[in-house]
Protein backbone atom coordinates (compact mmCIF):
# COMPACT_ATOMS: atom_id res chain seq x y z
CA UNK A 1 0.00 0.00 0.00
CA UNK A 2 2.73 2.59 0.82
CA UNK A 3 4.49 1.73 -2.49
CA UNK A 4 1.26 2.19 -4.44
CA UNK A 5 0.54 5.52 -2.69
CA UNK A 6 4.05 6.74 -3.47
CA UNK A 7 3.73 5.82 -7.20
CA UNK A 8 0.31 7.44 -7.31
CA UNK A 9 1.62 10.70 -5.85
CA UNK A 10 4.54 10.72 -8.28
CA UNK A 11 2.18 10.24 -11.22
CA UNK A 12 -0.11 13.04 -10.01
CA UNK A 13 2.86 15.39 -9.56
CA UNK A 14 4.13 14.62 -13.08
CA UNK A 15 0.70 15.28 -14.58
CA UNK A 16 0.41 18.50 -12.60
CA UNK A 17 3.79 19.67 -13.89
CA UNK A 18 2.82 18.80 -17.48
CA UNK A 19 -0.36 20.86 -17.12
CA UNK A 20 1.55 23.74 -15.60
CA UNK A 21 3.95 23.73 -18.51
CA UNK A 22 1.01 24.87 -20.64
CA UNK A 23 1.34 28.40 -19.27
CA UNK A 24 4.22 30.14 -17.49
CA UNK A 25 1.85 32.07 -15.17
CA UNK A 26 0.42 28.83 -13.81
CA UNK A 27 3.93 27.52 -13.24
CA UNK A 28 4.89 30.65 -11.30
CA UNK A 29 1.73 30.40 -9.17
CA UNK A 30 2.44 26.73 -8.36
CA UNK A 31 6.03 27.46 -7.35
CA UNK A 32 4.92 30.35 -5.09
CA UNK A 33 2.36 28.18 -3.26
CA UNK A 34 4.96 25.43 -2.79
CA UNK A 35 7.42 27.91 -1.26
CA UNK A 36 4.75 29.33 1.08
CA UNK A 37 3.75 25.84 2.26
CA UNK A 38 7.40 24.99 2.99
CA UNK A 39 7.76 28.23 4.96
CA UNK A 40 4.61 27.51 7.01
CA UNK A 41 5.81 23.97 7.72
CA UNK A 42 9.19 25.26 8.87
CA UNK A 43 7.52 27.85 11.11
CA UNK A 44 5.32 25.25 12.74
CA UNK A 45 8.35 23.00 13.28
CA UNK A 46 10.34 25.85 14.84
CA UNK A 47 7.41 26.78 17.07
CA UNK A 48 7.00 23.17 18.15
CA UNK A 49 10.68 23.06 19.09
CA UNK A 50 10.24 26.14 21.27
CA UNK A 51 7.23 24.86 23.19
CA UNK A 52 8.28 22.50 26.00
CA UNK A 53 7.49 18.84 25.28
CA UNK A 54 7.21 18.09 28.99
CA UNK A 55 3.89 19.32 30.33
CA UNK A 56 4.16 21.87 33.12
CA UNK A 57 2.28 20.64 36.19
CA UNK A 58 0.74 23.80 37.58
CA UNK A 59 0.76 22.74 41.22
CA UNK A 60 4.40 21.65 41.16
CA UNK A 61 5.43 24.78 39.27
CA UNK A 62 3.77 27.07 41.82
CA UNK A 63 5.35 25.11 44.68
CA UNK A 64 8.87 25.45 43.22
CA UNK A 65 8.36 29.16 42.50
CA UNK A 66 6.99 29.73 46.01
CA UNK A 67 9.97 27.89 47.53
CA UNK A 68 12.43 30.06 45.59
CA UNK A 69 10.42 33.13 46.55
CA UNK A 70 10.51 32.04 50.20
CA UNK A 71 14.31 32.05 50.36
CA UNK A 72 14.53 35.24 48.31
CA UNK A 73 12.03 37.06 50.52
CA UNK A 74 13.57 35.76 53.74
CA UNK A 75 16.98 37.06 52.65
CA UNK A 76 15.45 40.47 52.03
CA UNK A 77 13.18 40.81 55.06
CA UNK A 78 15.60 39.29 57.62
CA UNK A 79 17.60 42.52 57.47
CA UNK A 80 14.78 44.50 59.05
CA UNK A 81 14.27 42.50 62.27
CA UNK A 82 18.06 42.26 62.53
CA UNK A 83 18.15 46.08 62.48
CA UNK A 84 18.48 46.65 66.24
CA UNK A 85 21.31 44.09 66.53
CA UNK A 86 23.15 45.39 63.46
CA UNK A 87 22.87 48.99 64.66
CA UNK A 88 24.30 47.91 68.02
CA UNK A 89 27.07 45.60 66.73
CA UNK A 90 28.35 47.97 64.03
CA UNK A 91 27.48 51.13 65.99
CA UNK A 92 25.64 52.64 63.02
CA UNK A 93 22.94 55.32 62.81
CA UNK A 94 19.37 54.89 61.47
CA UNK A 95 20.43 56.47 58.16
CA UNK A 96 23.31 53.98 57.81
CA UNK A 97 20.95 51.12 58.53
CA UNK A 98 18.59 52.55 55.90
CA UNK A 99 21.51 52.49 53.45
CA UNK A 100 22.17 48.84 54.32
CA UNK A 101 18.56 47.99 53.42
CA UNK A 102 18.48 50.17 50.30
CA UNK A 103 21.83 48.87 48.95
CA UNK A 104 20.09 45.58 48.12
CA UNK A 105 17.25 47.33 46.30
CA UNK A 106 19.44 49.81 44.41
CA UNK A 107 21.60 46.94 43.16
CA UNK A 108 18.50 45.00 42.13
CA UNK A 109 17.21 48.05 40.23
CA UNK A 110 20.40 48.37 38.15
CA UNK A 111 20.60 44.62 37.49
CA UNK A 112 16.94 44.50 36.50
CA UNK A 113 17.43 47.24 33.92
CA UNK A 114 20.33 45.47 32.19
CA UNK A 115 18.70 42.03 32.39
CA UNK A 116 15.67 43.41 30.55
CA UNK A 117 17.83 43.68 27.43
CA UNK A 118 18.28 39.91 27.09
CA UNK A 119 16.24 37.98 29.72
CA UNK A 120 13.50 37.01 27.22
CA UNK A 121 16.06 35.37 24.91
CA UNK A 122 16.70 32.48 27.30
CA UNK A 123 14.79 29.45 28.49
CA UNK A 124 12.96 30.53 31.65
CA UNK A 125 14.32 27.51 33.55
CA UNK A 126 17.96 28.22 32.68
CA UNK A 127 17.63 31.90 33.53
CA UNK A 128 15.90 31.10 36.83
CA UNK A 129 18.56 28.60 37.91
CA UNK A 130 21.46 30.88 36.95
CA UNK A 131 20.02 33.80 38.90
CA UNK A 132 19.26 31.61 41.90
CA UNK A 133 22.84 30.31 41.94
CA UNK A 134 24.15 33.89 42.02
CA UNK A 135 21.70 34.74 44.78
CA UNK A 136 22.90 31.79 46.90
CA UNK A 137 26.53 32.89 46.49
CA UNK A 138 25.61 36.46 47.49
CA UNK A 139 23.80 35.21 50.58
CA UNK A 140 26.84 33.17 51.60
CA UNK A 141 28.96 36.31 51.19
CA UNK A 142 26.61 38.09 53.63
CA UNK A 143 27.17 35.32 56.15
CA UNK A 144 30.95 35.63 55.84
CA UNK A 145 31.09 39.46 56.01
CA UNK A 146 33.03 40.61 59.14
CA UNK A 147 32.48 44.38 58.81
CA UNK A 148 29.75 46.85 57.91
CA UNK A 149 31.47 47.77 54.62
CA UNK A 150 31.83 44.15 53.50
CA UNK A 151 28.24 43.37 54.51
CA UNK A 152 27.13 46.35 52.44
CA UNK A 153 29.08 44.98 49.43
CA UNK A 154 27.61 41.49 49.93
CA UNK A 155 24.10 42.94 50.00
CA UNK A 156 24.81 44.58 46.64
CA UNK A 157 25.75 41.15 45.18
CA UNK A 158 22.69 39.43 46.67
CA UNK A 159 20.43 42.20 45.40
CA UNK A 160 21.81 42.05 41.87
CA UNK A 161 20.61 38.45 41.52
CA UNK A 162 17.68 38.42 43.95
CA UNK A 163 15.89 41.40 42.45
CA UNK A 164 15.87 39.96 38.93
CA UNK A 165 14.89 36.57 40.37
CA UNK A 166 11.69 38.00 41.82
CA UNK A 167 10.76 39.57 38.48
CA UNK A 168 11.40 36.34 36.58
CA UNK A 169 9.15 34.39 38.96
CA UNK A 170 6.27 36.74 38.09
CA UNK A 171 7.07 36.40 34.37
CA UNK A 172 6.84 32.60 34.66
CA UNK A 173 3.44 32.94 36.36
CA UNK A 174 2.27 35.19 33.53
CA UNK A 175 3.50 32.73 30.90
CA UNK A 176 2.33 29.46 32.43
CA UNK A 177 -0.84 30.29 34.40
CA UNK A 178 -4.11 31.23 32.62
CA UNK A 179 -5.44 34.72 33.41
CA UNK A 180 -8.52 33.40 35.25
CA UNK A 181 -6.27 31.61 37.80
CA UNK A 182 -3.38 34.10 37.79
CA UNK A 183 -4.56 36.01 40.86
CA UNK A 184 -4.73 32.84 42.95
CA UNK A 185 -1.31 31.72 41.69
CA UNK A 186 0.22 35.10 42.50
CA UNK A 187 -1.38 34.95 45.94
CA UNK A 188 0.19 31.55 46.64
CA UNK A 189 3.64 32.71 45.57
CA UNK A 190 3.26 35.99 47.49
CA UNK A 191 2.32 33.88 50.53
CA UNK A 192 5.99 32.88 50.60
CA UNK A 193 6.52 36.16 52.44
CA UNK A 194 4.11 34.93 55.08
CA UNK A 195 5.83 31.56 55.39
CA UNK A 196 9.17 33.36 55.69
CA UNK A 197 7.66 35.44 58.49
CA UNK A 198 6.21 32.40 60.27
CA UNK A 199 9.14 30.00 60.03
CA UNK A 200 12.17 31.77 58.64
CA UNK A 201 12.34 35.03 60.57
CA UNK A 202 11.64 33.59 64.05
CA UNK A 203 14.25 30.86 63.50
CA UNK A 204 16.68 33.41 62.08
CA UNK A 205 16.17 35.78 65.00
CA UNK A 206 16.56 32.95 67.48
CA UNK A 207 19.84 31.87 65.89
CA UNK A 208 21.00 35.50 65.83
CA UNK A 209 20.16 35.96 69.51
CA UNK A 210 21.96 32.81 70.70
CA UNK A 211 24.93 33.03 68.30
CA UNK A 212 25.34 36.11 66.08
CA UNK A 213 23.69 37.93 63.16
CA UNK A 214 25.77 35.77 60.75
CA UNK A 215 23.77 32.60 61.54
CA UNK A 216 20.55 33.40 59.58
CA UNK A 217 22.57 33.96 56.41
CA UNK A 218 24.43 30.66 56.81
CA UNK A 219 21.04 28.96 57.18
CA UNK A 220 19.71 30.70 54.06
CA UNK A 221 22.77 29.80 51.98
CA UNK A 222 22.40 26.11 52.89
CA UNK A 223 18.64 26.12 52.25
CA UNK A 224 19.08 27.89 48.89
CA UNK A 225 21.54 25.19 47.79
CA UNK A 226 18.98 22.47 48.51
CA UNK A 227 16.20 24.37 46.71
CA UNK A 228 18.48 24.94 43.72
CA UNK A 229 19.08 21.18 43.37
CA UNK A 230 15.35 20.45 43.71
CA UNK A 231 14.44 23.10 41.10
CA UNK A 232 17.06 21.75 38.67
CA UNK A 233 15.44 18.30 38.62
CA UNK A 234 11.76 19.30 38.94
CA UNK A 235 11.36 22.28 36.60
CA UNK A 236 10.75 21.58 32.91
CA UNK A 237 12.23 23.67 30.13
CA UNK A 238 10.08 26.76 29.52
CA UNK A 239 10.73 28.12 26.04
CA UNK A 240 7.22 28.80 24.75
CA UNK A 241 7.73 32.57 24.94
CA UNK A 242 10.68 32.33 22.52
CA UNK A 243 8.33 31.76 19.56
CA UNK A 244 7.18 35.39 19.80
CA UNK A 245 10.24 37.10 21.29
CA UNK A 246 11.47 40.10 19.33
CA UNK A 247 14.69 39.63 17.33
CA UNK A 248 15.27 43.37 16.95
CA UNK A 249 17.71 45.60 18.80
CA UNK A 250 17.01 45.13 22.54
CA UNK A 251 17.24 48.89 23.08
CA UNK A 252 14.41 49.38 20.58
CA UNK A 253 12.33 46.83 22.49
CA UNK A 254 13.13 48.69 25.70
CA UNK A 255 12.05 51.96 24.10
CA UNK A 256 8.82 50.30 22.94
CA UNK A 257 8.05 49.18 26.50
CA UNK A 258 8.81 52.57 28.03
CA UNK A 259 6.57 54.38 25.54
CA UNK A 260 3.49 52.17 26.02
CA UNK A 261 1.02 54.09 28.16
CA UNK A 262 -0.46 50.97 29.77
CA UNK A 263 2.97 49.78 30.86
CA UNK A 264 3.70 53.22 32.26
CA UNK A 265 0.63 52.90 34.48
CA UNK A 266 1.65 49.36 35.48
CA UNK A 267 5.08 50.62 36.50
CA UNK A 268 3.54 53.54 38.38
CA UNK A 269 1.34 51.10 40.33
CA UNK A 270 4.34 48.96 41.30
CA UNK A 271 6.44 51.96 42.37
CA UNK A 272 3.75 53.68 44.45
CA UNK A 273 2.71 50.41 46.09
CA UNK A 274 6.32 49.63 47.00
CA UNK A 275 7.09 53.13 48.27
CA UNK A 276 3.98 53.11 50.46
CA UNK A 277 5.12 49.87 52.11
CA UNK A 278 8.85 50.44 52.41
CA UNK A 279 8.57 53.85 53.96
CA UNK A 280 7.26 51.98 57.01
CA UNK A 281 8.52 48.36 57.00
CA UNK A 282 12.30 48.83 57.55
CA UNK A 283 11.83 50.69 60.86
CA UNK A 284 9.06 48.60 62.42
CA UNK A 285 11.54 46.46 64.37
CA UNK A 286 13.78 49.32 65.57
CA UNK A 287 10.67 51.30 66.58
CA UNK A 288 9.17 48.37 68.48
CA UNK A 289 12.40 47.93 70.45
CA UNK A 290 13.16 51.60 71.06
CA UNK A 291 9.64 53.00 71.61
CA UNK A 292 7.14 50.24 72.39
CA UNK A 293 9.24 48.09 74.71
CA UNK A 294 9.96 44.84 72.82
CA UNK A 295 13.27 43.06 73.29
CA UNK A 296 15.24 41.88 70.26
CA UNK A 297 14.26 38.26 70.98
CA UNK A 298 10.56 39.18 71.20
CA UNK A 299 10.53 40.66 67.68
CA UNK A 300 9.99 37.16 66.27
CA UNK A 301 6.42 37.21 67.63
CA UNK A 302 5.58 40.16 65.37
CA UNK A 303 6.56 38.22 62.26
CA UNK A 304 5.18 34.92 63.55
CA UNK A 305 1.64 36.20 64.09
CA UNK A 306 1.76 38.47 61.04
CA UNK A 307 2.92 35.58 58.89
CA UNK A 308 0.35 33.14 60.27
CA UNK A 309 -2.42 35.55 59.36
CA UNK A 310 -1.17 36.52 55.91
CA UNK A 311 -0.43 32.97 54.75
CA UNK A 312 -4.22 32.63 54.54
CA UNK A 313 -5.30 36.19 53.78
CA UNK A 314 -2.89 36.64 50.84
CA UNK A 315 -4.39 33.59 49.13
CA UNK A 316 -7.92 34.72 49.95
CA UNK A 317 -7.14 38.10 48.45
CA UNK A 318 -5.91 36.40 45.26
CA UNK A 319 -9.03 34.24 44.95
CA UNK A 320 -11.33 37.19 45.71
CA UNK A 321 -9.51 39.21 43.06
CA UNK A 322 -10.15 36.48 40.47
CA UNK A 323 -13.82 36.29 41.46
CA UNK A 324 -14.81 39.92 42.11
CA UNK A 325 -12.25 41.87 40.10
CA UNK A 326 -8.61 42.62 40.80
CA UNK A 327 -9.01 46.41 40.81
CA UNK A 328 -11.93 46.29 43.25
CA UNK A 329 -10.16 44.04 45.78
CA UNK A 330 -6.94 46.04 45.51
CA UNK A 331 -8.75 49.33 46.16
CA UNK A 332 -10.58 47.86 49.14
CA UNK A 333 -7.37 46.49 50.71
CA UNK A 334 -5.36 49.66 50.02
CA UNK A 335 -7.88 51.98 51.65
CA UNK A 336 -8.25 49.76 54.72
CA UNK A 337 -4.46 49.54 55.07
CA UNK A 338 -4.19 53.25 55.82
CA UNK A 339 -5.63 52.89 59.32
CA UNK A 340 -3.08 50.20 60.21
CA UNK A 341 -0.24 52.34 58.80
CA UNK A 342 -1.16 55.28 61.02
CA UNK A 343 -1.59 52.99 64.03
CA UNK A 344 1.77 51.21 63.73
CA UNK A 345 3.78 54.41 63.14
CA UNK A 346 2.35 56.25 66.16
CA UNK A 347 2.11 53.34 68.60
CA UNK A 348 3.01 54.36 72.18
CA UNK A 349 4.28 51.93 74.86
CA UNK A 350 1.41 49.43 75.14
CA UNK A 351 1.00 45.82 76.31
CA UNK A 352 2.58 43.38 73.90
CA UNK A 353 -0.71 41.77 72.89
CA UNK A 354 -2.07 45.16 71.75
CA UNK A 355 1.06 45.83 69.71
CA UNK A 356 0.85 42.37 68.15
CA UNK A 357 -2.76 42.97 67.09
CA UNK A 358 -1.74 46.24 65.39
CA UNK A 359 1.27 44.73 63.62
CA UNK A 360 -0.71 41.66 62.49
CA UNK A 361 -3.46 43.82 60.95
CA UNK A 362 -0.77 45.88 59.20
CA UNK A 363 0.79 42.77 57.63
CA UNK A 364 -2.63 41.43 56.58
CA UNK A 365 -3.42 44.47 54.46
CA UNK A 366 0.19 44.85 53.34
CA UNK A 367 0.01 41.37 51.78
CA UNK A 368 -3.60 41.68 50.56
CA UNK A 369 -2.63 44.59 48.30
CA UNK A 370 0.19 42.74 46.54
CA UNK A 371 -1.66 39.66 45.23
CA UNK A 372 -4.21 41.52 43.02
CA UNK A 373 -1.65 44.21 42.14
CA UNK A 374 0.94 41.74 40.82
CA UNK A 375 -1.74 39.81 38.92
CA UNK A 376 -2.78 43.09 37.26
CA UNK A 377 0.80 43.97 36.38
CA UNK A 378 1.59 40.58 34.80
CA UNK A 379 -1.65 40.81 32.77
CA UNK A 380 -0.86 44.31 31.48
CA UNK A 381 1.93 43.17 29.13
CA UNK A 382 1.87 40.84 26.13
CA UNK A 383 3.81 37.55 26.47
CA UNK A 384 6.60 38.44 24.02
CA UNK A 385 7.65 41.36 26.26
CA UNK A 386 6.70 39.93 29.64
CA UNK A 387 10.10 38.77 30.89
CA UNK A 388 11.87 41.96 29.81
CA UNK A 389 9.12 44.18 31.13
CA UNK A 390 8.98 42.40 34.49
CA UNK A 391 12.72 42.99 34.84
CA UNK A 392 12.26 46.70 34.07
CA UNK A 393 9.27 46.80 36.40
CA UNK A 394 11.34 45.09 39.11
CA UNK A 395 14.07 47.70 38.60
CA UNK A 396 11.62 50.51 39.28
CA UNK A 397 10.15 48.54 42.18
CA UNK A 398 13.55 48.02 43.80
CA UNK A 399 14.52 51.63 43.12
CA UNK A 400 11.31 52.75 44.81
CA UNK A 401 11.95 50.48 47.79
CA UNK A 402 15.51 51.74 48.12
CA UNK A 403 14.53 55.39 47.93
CA UNK A 404 11.70 54.83 50.41
CA UNK A 405 13.95 53.07 52.94
CA UNK A 406 16.65 55.71 52.53
CA UNK A 407 14.17 58.58 52.86
CA UNK A 408 12.63 56.96 55.93
CA UNK A 409 16.11 56.70 57.45
CA UNK A 410 16.58 60.43 56.94
CA UNK A 411 13.22 61.32 58.49
CA UNK A 412 13.41 59.00 61.52
CA UNK A 413 15.85 60.34 64.13
CA UNK A 414 17.28 58.79 67.27
CA UNK A 415 16.95 60.87 70.43
CA UNK A 416 19.45 61.11 73.28
CA UNK A 417 17.54 58.52 75.32
CA UNK A 418 17.57 55.98 72.46
CA UNK A 419 13.96 56.33 71.28
CA UNK A 420 13.02 57.06 67.65
CA UNK A 421 11.04 60.13 66.61
CA UNK A 422 9.26 61.33 63.43
CA UNK A 423 8.01 57.83 62.55
CA UNK A 424 4.48 59.25 62.56
CA UNK A 425 5.41 61.62 59.72
CA UNK A 426 6.59 58.58 57.78
CA UNK A 427 3.16 57.01 58.31
CA UNK A 428 1.36 60.09 56.95
CA UNK A 429 3.61 60.11 53.90
CA UNK A 430 2.90 56.41 53.35
CA UNK A 431 -0.86 57.04 53.48
CA UNK A 432 -0.52 59.79 50.87
CA UNK A 433 1.30 57.42 48.51
CA UNK A 434 -1.34 54.73 49.17
CA UNK A 435 -4.03 57.11 47.89
CA UNK A 436 -1.96 57.51 44.71
CA UNK A 437 -1.99 53.71 44.19
CA UNK A 438 -5.80 53.73 44.20
CA UNK A 439 -5.82 56.45 41.55
CA UNK A 440 -3.23 54.71 39.39
CA UNK A 441 -4.85 51.25 39.45
CA UNK A 442 -8.00 52.62 37.78
CA UNK A 443 -5.94 53.56 34.71
CA UNK A 444 -4.53 50.08 34.15
CA UNK A 445 -5.81 47.77 31.38
CA UNK A 446 -5.39 43.99 31.07
CA UNK A 447 -4.11 42.81 27.68
CA UNK A 448 -3.24 39.12 28.23
Provide an overview of this structure.
This protein has 448 residues and is mostly helical. It has one domain (57-241, 249-441): MFS general substrate transporter like domains (Growth Hormone, Chain: A, Up-down Bundle). The protein contains 17 helices and 2 strands. A two-stranded antiparallel sheet has the order 1-2. Strand 1 and strand 2 (420-421) form a beta hairpin. The model is unreliable at 1-54 (pLDDT under 50).
CATH superfamily descriptor:
MFS general substrate transporter like domains
Q: β content, as a range?
A: under 5%
**Biggest sheet, open or closed, and with what strands and sense?**
2 strands, antiparallel
Query: How many alpha or pi helices?
Result: 17
Give me the Rg, rounded: 26 Å
Query: Could you say which overall geometry the principal axes of the C-alpha atoms support?
Result: globular
The tally of beta strands, per DSSP, is: 2
Amino acid sequence: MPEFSSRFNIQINKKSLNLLNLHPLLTAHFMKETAENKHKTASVTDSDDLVPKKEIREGLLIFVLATIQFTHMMDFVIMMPLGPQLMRVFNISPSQFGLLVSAYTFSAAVAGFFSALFIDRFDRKHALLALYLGFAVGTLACALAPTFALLLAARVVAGAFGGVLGALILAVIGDAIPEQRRGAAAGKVMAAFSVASIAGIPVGLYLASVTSWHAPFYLLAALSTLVLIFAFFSLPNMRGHLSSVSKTNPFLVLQQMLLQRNLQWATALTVTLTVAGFLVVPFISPYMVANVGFTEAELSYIYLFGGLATVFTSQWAGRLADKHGKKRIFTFAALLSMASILAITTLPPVPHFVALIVTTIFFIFFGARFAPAMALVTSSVEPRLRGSYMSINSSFQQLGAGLAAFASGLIVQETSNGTLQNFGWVGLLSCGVTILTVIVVKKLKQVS
